Amino acid sequence: MKSFIQPAEWEAHDAxxxxxxxxxxxxxxxxxxxQAQVGALFKAIADGGKGEALKILANGDDAIxxxxxxxxxxxxxxxxAGFGDIWLRDTAPIFTRGAGGLQAACFIFNGWGGKYVLxxxxxxxxxVAARADVPAAFNSWVLEGGSIDxxxxxxxxxxxxxxxxxxxxxxxxxxxxxxxxxxxLGIEKLIWLGDGLANDHTDGHVDNIARFIAPxxxxxxxxxxxxxxxxxxxxxxxxxxxxxxxxxxxxxxxVTVPSPGRVENEDGEIIPASSMNFYIGNTxxxxxxxxxxxxxxxxxxxxxxxxxxxxxxxxxxNVITGGGSFHCITQQQPxx
Length: 336
Known about the structure:
- It is built from eleven helices and 17 strands.
- Helix content is 26%, strand content 26%.
- The strands form five sheets. The chain has a four-stranded mixed sheet with strand order 1-5-6-7, covered by helices on one side.
- It has one domain (4-334): L-arginine/glycine Amidinotransferase, Chain A.
- β5 (94-98) and β6 (101-108) form a beta hairpin.
- By secondary structure, the chain is α/β, with parallel strands linked by helices.
């Protein structure tokens, strides 16, 4: 029996950790709109006090003031902290649970393979662990929380594009990564998918393409049409998941929702918009929307998958200009 295991996201949380966007040099003209969208996310998770506690890092006096004002009435704890950007799914620790309570698994963060190395991001995991008063377990290899998705029983989804990328752990073979995930997070069975979304600077994070939504049940996206820039990758993911089994040996039940399809920025570049980047809170599933023709259909399909929770769709078109969406911002702290 494993001493610690990473719980599934649908299990009860004591809190969610996130951060307030404030770096004007990173967000440029999208800063104020992104703050509005992130604020709406936090309010939906808090759900008028029925959801979970908000632990929000804020970098600098101006950020503390704006976060406090925007989140008034949510009960959010605004925590002064230094960090590069808000993507705590990847920079914060991954909380695990065992007989002795919680543990914070901290990994090396190298800016998604060296692409975005920002001052302070590599210190977030230790800071959050200490602030949460949870014992930290430090792991001397690179792992981002968005690169894995678990069922809480020992099964994990991931992609070869990310975990086997030489810009992360060039000296580790696949079997070595599997062994380290077993030791660090209690993962006994990895389901390896291929590539993630086009132009995703995370090199194929799985939380953009496939998610466990219940034991033995996985949700992923089907192409929105012939011009979907991820058509081949999404079809391959569906096929791989239908052929896969979980840690108990059962075949996965694969639920599909429509992809946002071709979503472009103002320069005509394809952005990695994903319906899968939702956050599963205690009372609310918050789904990112992008103004796509498939938004409503995706939202209804996700709502059907979570009958015990309310489902809230919120625009994330400004948030994604920073490189991620709602799940990328959040890191849940499980209830003991």
